[in-house]
Amino acid sequence: MTNIYWESFKTFFKIGIFTLGGGYAMIPLIEEEVVNKKQWVSKDEMLDLIAIAQSCPGVFAINIATFIGYKLNKTRGAIATTIGTALPSFLIILLIAIFFHQFEDNKVVAAMFRGIRPAVVALIAVPTFNLSKRAQLNKWTLWIPIVSALAIWLLGVSPIWIIIIAGLGGYIYGRIAV
């Protein structure tokens, strides 16, 4: 029998290593590993965990890893998944900090980063579309993400206000609909 702490640490360490573009780019990898392969959480639980992780302060990737780890094995599970997620980034940033001055003017390295940028956009777009399908948007709720995105992008509204308003709206809707 495998040690759940070691297994969850390795899983999230692997996700942390192969993720460029931040927490949202991690969603497909986390879903593949945690929902499809290991079946630690269901698709519906994953959607709920994503919503909660987005609503909490802090780094999205750390939040979701912490919540999944906690679900697996309370505080120790949360510690294992959180360290597994954060450690690769820490080590990579440490190496970059140590050796960056040697590569900062390297045209090959600059070209590699220019090539990575469009891929990161796709890594963020795909989970967004998948989440919208599972969120069961319909003609009554489709306006919410559209208005939210436009308010943030065009009007400069803080995403914090969008989260607060959406949370209050969901609460009120839940009280009225039930």
Structure characterization notes:
- With 178 residues, the protein is mainly alpha-helical.
- It is built from seven helices and no strands.
- The protein has helices at 4-17, 23-37, 43-55, 60-103, 107-134, 143-155, 159-177.
- It is globular and about 60 Å long.
- The N and C termini lie far apart (44 Å).
- The model has no long low-confidence stretch (mean pLDDT 86).
Q: Helix and strand layout, with pairings?
A:
Blueprint: H1 4-17, H2 23-37, H3 43-55, H4 60-103, H5 107-134, H6 143-155, H7 159-177
Helix pairs in contact: 1-2, 1-4, 2-4, 2-5, 3-4
Question: Which key phrases capture this entry?
Answer:
single chain; 178 residues; mainly alpha; 0% strand; globular
| Structural class determined from secondary elements | mainly alpha
> Largest sheet at a glance?
none
Q: pLDDT average, as an integer?
A: 86
Strand content range: under 5%
